[in-house]
Write a structure and sequence with these properties.
By secondary structure, the protein is α/β, with parallel strands linked by helices. It is 42% helix and 19% strand. Strands 1-12-10-11 form a four-stranded parallel beta sheet, with helices on both faces. The protein has a four-stranded parallel beta sheet with strand order 3-2-4-5, with helices on both faces. This is 4-hydroxy-3-methylbut-2-enyl diphosphate reductase.
């Protein structure tokens, strides 16, 4: 029996940086209240652990409006520019844990929109990263996530367009949607802002899934990059299981397989990955 664990599984640089930032703030020894704007990452287990340490999550506009003091840590997904402005007006201490790759997109969108470019974000409009990116534009923004939306997109012929991508978007799908838009003969600037770690993670996951009898993808159910990993792996391996913790996995399903692959989303802690790997190893 053989277990193949993806080397890229687990926290990416941006997520690790954000999580470490929160824990560091809880160790200062002060009585100052600590908040994160939205869950710091898409992982319920990590967020629950932080809540045990006194970290509270700002989950709504009402929560933000009611805030009067403390430290607010900006989540790894980033937020709209207006959130910074509102916190600054209140005199709230801001600790920015936005992923540097996401922060780069904010600057690109702000610059190009100031120049009058139409901004297109290739990504999921409901994802907090995309919502944050939209909030840095000073011109109209379109969010496109599939071929149908790309086909139906239109704007004045003389309008310049700047295309960026959600950092965790599928690279091949991004290229497909860009090609559809470029065929419309607009003046288009394309900036591939998909994180290299995302592409490497997806490529490695596909490669492993193509060679094993069963594939386990570990990550929070709300994690966009984990969902994409699952979709990629399921296309290559019919026996692909999406779990959040070991308790979600029926080990009996793996009893007759000879090789198992394991990968995990960028918001999955190493201890959960190791727990799954160790228990799979036991049944073998």
């Amino acid at each position: 029996m053989k277990i193949i664990k993806a080397e890229s599984a687990g926290f990416c640089f941006g997520v690790k940086r954000a999580v470490d930032t929160v824990y560091k703030c809880t160790e200062t020894g002060t009585d100052e209240k600590i908040y994160t704007y939205g869950p710091i990452i898409h992982n319920e287990e990590v967020v629950k652990d932080m809540e045990k340490r006194g970290v509270r999550v700002i989950r709504s506009e009402e929560d933000l409006a009611a805030l009067k003091e403390g430290t607010v840590i900006i989540r790894s997904h980033g937020v709209e520019k207006r959130v910074y402005e509102e916190l600054e007006k209140k005199g709230i201490h801001i600790v920015d844990a936005t992923c540097p790759f996401v922060k780069k997109i904010h600057k690109i969108v702000e610059k190009h929109s100031e120049q009058g470019d139409r901004i297109i974000i290739i990504g999921n409009p409901d994802h907090p990263e995309v919502q944050g990116i939209r909030g840095w534009a000073k011109s109209p923004v379109s969010v496109i996530r599939n071929a149908e939306e790309a086909e139906s997109f239109s704007c004045p012929a003389d309008q310049k367009i700047c295309i960026v991508a959600q950092t965790t978007f599928n690279y091949n799908k991004f290229k497909e949607l860009v090609e559809i838009i470029e065929k419309k003969s607009y003046d288009v600037s394309v900036l591939n802002t998909i994180c290299n770690a995302t592409k490497e993670r997806q490529t490695e996951a596909r490669s492993i899934a193509e060679t094993v009898d069963a594939m386990i993808v570990i990550g929070d159910k709300h994690s966009s990059n984990t969902q994409k990993l699952f979709e990629i792996c399921r296309k290559a391996c019919n026996n692909t299981y999406y779990i959040q913790t070991l308790g979600d996995l029926d080990l009996n399903q793996l009893g007759s397989v000879e090789t198992v692959g394991i990968t995990a989303g960028a918001s999955t802690p190493n201890n959960i990955i190791e727990e799954v790997q160790n228990n799979v190893r036991i049944i073998f």
